Amino acid sequence: MRAAVLHETGQEKLEILDDVETVGFGPGKVKLRIRATGLCHSDVSAMNGVLPQPAPFVPGHEGAGEVVDVGDGVTGLGVGDRVLVCWLPACGACPSCKRGQTQLCLAGFMNAGTPNFRRPGGEVFGFAGTGTFTEEVVVGAGCAVPIPDDVPFEIAALIGCGVTTGLGAAINTAQVEAGSSVAVIGCGGVGISTVQGARVRGAAQIVAVDPVASRREAALRFGATEAVSPGELADAKQRITAGEGFDYVFEVVGKSATARTAYENTRRGGTLCIVGAGAMDDNFQVNMFELFFDEKRILPSMYGGGDVLRSYERAIALWRAGRIDLESMITHRVRLDGINDALDQMRTGESLRTCIEL
Fold first, then answer.
1. Parallel/antiparallel/unpaired status of strands 246-251 and 266-274
2. Is the CA virtual torsion 15, 108, 327, 210 positive or negative?
3. Would you say 84 and 64 are in contact if contact means Cβ atoms under 8 Å apart?
4. Which of the 8 DSSP states describes residue 258?
5. CA nearest to 140, candidates 307, 57, 28, 63
6. pLDDT by 10s per residue, the chain, length 358
């Protein structure tokens, strides 16, 4: 079986191997044939060590495909079912799940330390307990979420992570109010989804902030009312909010420097929403006086900040209704052999989302 493997954390290139096998199939598990998978920036963050992940591993967590085998005790899934991959399935029994905060369930993270694959050289992990840069993968039944027949695999793959994360940040976490002003810092796939979420919620002004001109141009097509470089944000704040700051600012980069910029561009009493996944040693700082005096809400948003199954359904409904555009988010399509070129395009900002077709 073919798969893209990172041998050591810190390497920039993946090796395409054909001697990889799936492991772990049994009760409660399903085997999937991956048909499409998106390249998410979190994959790059795992490769360079920003996000913790044992190596060697197969990156990829934003996938969709078909069920090819079902383990004992699995209900609601059958061979041939079309599914998307949920990299953070809810166990339904932990305190977070019982409180209705299923996006905070840690059961899925525990899977990251269990090998999903093997090859003659030894065990191979799957990123975030999945690993979708491969032809087949074995996952827990909760990771395989059935999708309607009218949803293409490449669209379902995007909904499996980036779209759900961005839409949910605006809809679930920040609960953007109609008529409000919004700034989105970082306009890759997740940031563009945040722009679309703010538009769906009825924001009056949506300012997209990104250093890459092509991403700024794309943001305008997806609903931003204005797109500026980071150096132009102060001017936009002055023109649009009379210097007060935006009602909502979304940080979709995952760095303390951009989080601080986001904080400073949020109005007093406004909302800063942290969407980007950053490093454990990168500390965001505010002083105690401004924290008290400005009364800005700082809201982290994990995987869209809500029940992911409901979020998937909502994304599909909005897509069907033409309220969000998912097809145009896919700017590049490659086969598995082209994965390293796709990684370079993501690093330079050339791509919004690359679909890897298997």
1. parallel
2. negative
3. yes
4. H
5. 28
6. 999 999 999 999 999 999 999 999 999 999 999 999 999 999 999 999 999 999 999 999 999 999 999 999 999 999 999 999 999 999 999 999 999 999 999 887 777 778 999 999 899 999 999 999 999 999 999 999 999 999 999 999 999 999 999 999 999 999 999 999 999 999 999 999 999 999 999 999 999 999 999 999 999 999 999 999 999 999 999 999 999 999 999 999 999 999 999 999 999 999 999 999 999 999 999 999 999 999 999 999 999 999 999 999 999 999 999 999 999 999 999 999 999 999 999 999 999 999 999 9
Whole-structure pTM value:
0.96
Distance, in Å, from the CA atom of 232 to the CA atom of 163, rounded to the nearest integer, reads 27
- Residue 63 Cα distances to 80, 133, 159, 200, 338, angstroms: 16, 8, 9, 25, 17
What tokens appear for 52 in the block? 């913790």
State the amino acid at position 216 in one-letter form: R
List the structure tokens of 138.
């074995």
CB contact at 8 A, 346 and 190: no
Q: Which residues contact 243 (CB under 8 A, 6 or more apart)?
A: 237
Number of alpha carbons in the 13 Å side-chain half-sphere of residue 335? 3
- Peptide bond just before 56 cis, omega within 30 deg: yes
Q: What angle do CA 71, 58, 85 make, to 5 degrees?
A: 50
Distance CA 277, CA 35 (A): 26
336, two tokens: 């598995």
Q: Confirm if 94 and 106 have CB atoms less than 8 A apart.
A: yes
Measuring CA to CA, how many Å separate 14 from each of 123, 261, 352?
16, 34, 20
Q: Which residues on adjacent β-strands are paired with residue 297?
A: 271
Q: Which residues pair with 273 in a beta bridge?
A: 250, 299
At 33, which helix (H) or strand (E)? strand 29-38
